[in-house]
Structure prediction request, 165 residues.
Amino acid sequence: MKVIRHLLIVCAALLLIIGIPFFRSGYFAAMISGEDAVASATVALDQPSGEYVVMINETIRTDDETLNTWTDYFSGKEIDFLFEDIRCCVASGDAPGLEMARSYQSRLPENQMKIRTEDATLMLSKAEYGNFDIIVMSKEFADIFGADSLKGQEGVRYLEVKGAQ
Prediction:
């Protein structure tokens, strides 16, 4: 009986220490969201109109050919198929930026581009230290949060993109 009681206490303590923070995290929500190859876009979405900023982390993309191909892709040019997954970050509340990111995502093969939203200040703070893959923002959000400070930063390719007219 003492062994069973001890096991229950240990399991309860582990649940409190590890389980509850995990269940409250965004990782658990993403796991149960059900987004997979079937749920992702299969039809190319039209590009929204407006002006956008795309930032590519050059320290992750060390191959010049791959980096130039992604630059062409985000600039609106047609590209060949790339065998590389990317993680795109969009500012929370930036509906036009999210719409543009989904448009980019829809033109790629299934699940090649993952999109997540994050607080704009935190996202740009991480970008200053190179902790990002791809960032898509509307020009309005970029101006409000001072994303142009990353324009000349080493390791960041800063693109100003115009959506469909």
